[in-house]
Amino acid sequence: MLSLRNLSRAYRTDTVETTALDAIDLDIADGEFVAIMGPSGCGKSTLLNILGLLDSPTSGSYDFAGTEVAGLPEAKLSAIRKRHIGFIFQSFNLVDELSVRENVELALLYHGIPAAERRARVDRVMDKVGIAHRAAHRPSQLSGGQQQRVAVARAVVGEPKLILADEPTGNLDTAHGEEVMRMLQALNGEGATIIMVTHSPAHADYASRVVDMLDGRVLIERRQAA
Ligand code: ADP
Ligand code: ADP
């Protein structure tokens, strides 16, 4: 599915250079569920942003599903991102001017799917995450747990190859956090590749592989029975 080779990302200001990622090598196969852990500032968000084509490496290569994407122009990155990658953020990132249904449907607009089929797919996925009865509400009218379920629906409605989750349970209480983890587990069971940043060892236990980072490098990787 994806492969990073000698990949680095540096941030430069007038006076300081920060190496956020330092010569990372990482391979992730189709169908894996990978948890990325490590202390604040070790490069987790930078790595996830690069994996999600939201940011580009300073050097090194990134093969995404057979395409070398490091150095591609933003228009191309954006096209791949919309078609093949679903994002789930800690802060949900829903559009409050739109209804729940419209938020989910937004993710399908670039897929060239006829309106009737789009509606059917949106209905199916809202049903699947248990949010169908809130379709006409605005995100701000929902609880945090419900908002994250909408975000999960939006991330998966386009049937992306890859789902990236940046601390998806960070703003949720324990019960709602577990609920989101079980949803990710079910999606992984259906074949989705998932890469998740988390601070929670209990939530990392849902993954089939844990990547521990320190100072922009992969410190240790372990595979585990999910
Ligand atoms: P984590 O997600 O593990 O907390 P980040 O990827 O956010 O780590 O940050 C890695 C390093 O890169 C940190 O030292 C951080 O200060 C630095 N960094 C992140 N984003 C920027 C930026 N936009 N400008 C300058 N430095 C940054
Ligand atoms: P935070 O670290 O504040 O919790 P998020 O996890 O919400 O940030 O977002 C991680 C990164 O993804 C940020 O750099 C943000 O700019 C970017 N991002 C967030 N939402 C979107 C979006 N809908 N589309 C594109 N990029 C986004």
TrEMBL record:
Against Pfam families, the record matches this protein to:
ABC_tran
SMART domains registered for this protein in UniProt: AAA
- Is Ribonucleoprotein tagged as a keyword? no
This protein's UniProt keywords? ATP-binding, Cell inner membrane, Cell membrane, Membrane, Nucleotide-binding, Transport
**Could you tell me which residue ranges the ABC transporter domain spans?**
2-225
Q: Which GO terms describe its molecular function?
A: ATP binding; ATP hydrolysis activity; transmembrane transporter activity
Determine if Glycosyltransferase is one of this entry's keywords: no
Cellular-component GO terms for this entry: membrane protein complex; plasma membrane
Superkingdom field? Bacteria
Indicate the family of this protein: Belongs to the ABC transporter superfamily. Macrolide exporter (TC 3.A.1.122) family.
Q: What is this protein called?
A: Putative ABC transport system ATP-binding protein
Give the organism the record lists.
Sphingomonas jatrophae
